[in-house]
């Protein structure tokens, strides 16, 4: 691989009690790459995401992001370094409007101070306008602008999933990680979503790591895949290779093959 | 342009309404048209509004169940009384010192306790509030359980009114800003907030300290209205009273907290001659509201001129 890796994970281990959820996990992703992480139920995919974003601390291993080890950093500082994610089980700010959900994600770069807010300085009004414009820009891309004043919890499932991506995008990440973004969507919605993911990747010059349970979904969109089973990487490579990999087929045999 | 114009028009009308209320009451007081009984209740209302609005920042907007608000009020009351009564400093210095001391106490207590969640936080804040009270009982400088007596009555209507306006303006402006959204995101989903770049610990402590600071202001105003402060006044029942106002008003609604604080104070005053009935009615209201409107009177909505406009507009 010629390009420099944006993120490089080495020998990552995580166990819960006696259960080894992730074992000796090694992973690289180059700048602007779109990589998929697949594997059967309970393989440890979400755990990998939780380790990268600082929700859990690994027992062992390093996560180098732009030359800095993320292990031990708090989640909000990892976000500030340029890693943003969505959640497998949607975690929007339910009682807030769609617009506020997105605005919150821009807070880490808030353009005015606390005193400015309390005293309602001119900078506050200018800053609020900026924030609103920015949030609407992202909502527009995802065709959600006319939903801006709805409460997040009142939107249909597919739209909530999209708002999660918008919210993550609004933190201005370098690396966007999506945990089963198409879960619960119908084939048409899934197709549209994959299109959209391809689009934002070019538009915002993003690197994307994407978990999918269903193999067929990621085949079309990802350039490279990692397959996880029982916490271990059992295969890695371009989709075409993975599709015919014997171990992968076996791992998925117990399930409805994607 | 239109937006800017509206902003100023709204601002001007708010100032006008506040000035009208202030002048009206000031006139009634100076003209001797408001008897002692009404004046006392008016002062109680102001103090309770400050307490409820400041606790609603912690409980309602940040979602951290705190049961120690009376403790911060005590810090403010004692610090202010020491400044004016014992050290002969001007009232404004007493007030500033009260806010600073209570805010600092909030910060110091907030850093370790705000790691706790839900019930644990409630118990910890309850205990710390009681610790403040018991500590005061054992300090001879402030006369232990007997408390400080003969505090000058400096909390006149302008101070009380100013205190309420300051509290409401600061907290409303804070809540309706990016910082406020960060604070609210902690209530909504702490994990998601943290992962979206919000330093949740920082904002919990910030809200806690600001809330405590205004409880200190309420304490200072209280001490200088009612002549006497005793540690017993600031026990956990007082914290509970404030919490009831916030919950009745609706968690996450400043106007709700204000309405609840005013009505409960008025109700308490009206039922003063019948203490037994008062407690029963109080409990009954709580039970009824919790059954039929568990989100409180206002839920997390705010009452504004626009709301009135909509109601009246709809009738036309
Ligand atoms: N906080 C936790 N405590 C205990 N066990 C956990 C925890 N989180 C995950 N696990 C366990 O670790 C294993 C891997 O879980 P993980 O959620 O990472 O799987 P996954 O690949 O994302 O699966 P799915 O496709 O179902 O989302 C599972 O056996 C799960 O039960
Ligand atoms: Mg998962």
Descriptive notes:
The complex is a heterodimer of chains A (258) and B (316). Helices cover 38% and strands 24% of the residues of chain A. With 258 residues, chain A is α/β, with parallel strands linked by helices. The longest helix of chain A is centred in the middle third of the chain and has 20 residues, at 122-141. Chain B is mainly α. Chain B has two domains: 1-34; 35-311, ABC transporter involved in vitamin B12 uptake, BtuC, CATH 1.10.3470. Chain B is 75% helix and 0% strand. Chain B contains 13 helices and no strands. The longest helix of chain B has 29 residues, at 2-30. The interface between A and B is medium-sized, with 38 and 27 residues.
Give the oligomeric state of the chains in this entry, treating copies of one chain as homo and distinct chains as hetero: heterodimer
Largest sheet composition of chain B? none
The N- to C-terminal Cα distance of chain A equals 29 Å
Rg of chain B (CA only): 20 Å
Which geometry of chain A do the CA atoms define?
Answer: globular
Domain tally of chain B: 2
Instruction: Calculate the mean pLDDT score of chain B and round it.
Output: 89
CATH class membership of the largest domain in chain B: Mainly Alpha
Sum this structure up briefly.
The complex is a heterodimer of chains A (258) and B (316). Chain A is built from 10 helices and 10 strands.
Primary descriptors:
heterodimer, A: 258 residues, alpha/beta, 6-stranded mixed sheet, 4-stranded antiparallel sheet, 10 helices, 24% strand, B: 316 residues, mainly alpha, ABC transporter involved in vitamin B12 uptake, BtuC, globular, binds adenosine-5'-triphosphate, binds magnesium ion
Secondary structure blueprint with pairings:
The complex is a heterodimer of chains A (258) and B (316).
Chain A: E1 5-16, E2 19-30, E3 34-38, H1 45-52, E4 60-65, E5 68-69, H2 75-81, E6 83-85, H3 98-105, H4 114-118, H5 122-141, H6 157-169, E7 175-179, H7 187-203, E8 207-212, H8 215-221, E9 224-229, E10 232-237, H9 239-243, H10 246-253
Parallel strand pairs in A: 3-8, 3-9, 6-7, 7-8
Antiparallel strand pairs in A: 1-2, 1-4, 4-5, 9-10
Helix pairs in contact in A: 3-6
Chain B: H1 2-30, H2 36-61, H3 69-86, H4 91-113, H5 118-137, H6 157-175, H7 178-188, H8 190-195, H9 200-223, H10 236-249, H11 254-270, H12 275-292, H13 305-315
Residues 16, 19, 21, 39, 41-47, 88, 213 of chain A line the site of adenosine-5'-triphosphate.
